[in-house]
Amino acid sequence: MAPPVRTPRQAWIDAALAVLAEAGADAIRVETLAARLDVTRGGFYRQFASRQELLDAVLDNWELRTVDEVRERVEREGGDAKDKVRKAGALTFSPGLLPVDLAVREWARRDPAVAVRLQRVDNERMAYLRDLIGTISDDPRDVEARAMLAFSLVIANYLITAEHDTGNRTEIIDSAIQFVLK
Description:
CATH topology of the domain at 57-181: Tetracycline Repressor, domain 2
Helix content: over 70%
Largest sheet: none
CATH class of the domain at 57-181: Mainly Alpha
């Protein structure tokens, strides 16, 4: 008799990330994930000791994807600092990663441990922006202001629903990025 097929650990993490993006951290439940994966709950406990272990793995995976993998890809694809800033923003807040990032931000409002993790991730993102923008400007205050504006711009783009009088959202964001990076 063949051994039972086990659901890989990453499948549980990916399912949890999808639930996080759709319904928030409170919706990440073993039963929900097992149903989504069409497996029994027992398989979960062969991969994770607890729900908390899964939640930690979810945050680890989010951080890996949105910091390490983004930075690695940006550096591999190259370009000047302005190109890299644009690319990092586009990748970090891509349709595949943005919903999870926004869900983590909401989660961090209620969970101090997640808030610490989010702050660390944001600090890493800001440090990378400072490094890139520091090649455009040698004034530390200017570098900090531009990095803050660039980071704020990509997050606020998804939170602000205002219409624009002089162009569509993409055109306005492009103009704002050009302004920050000139």
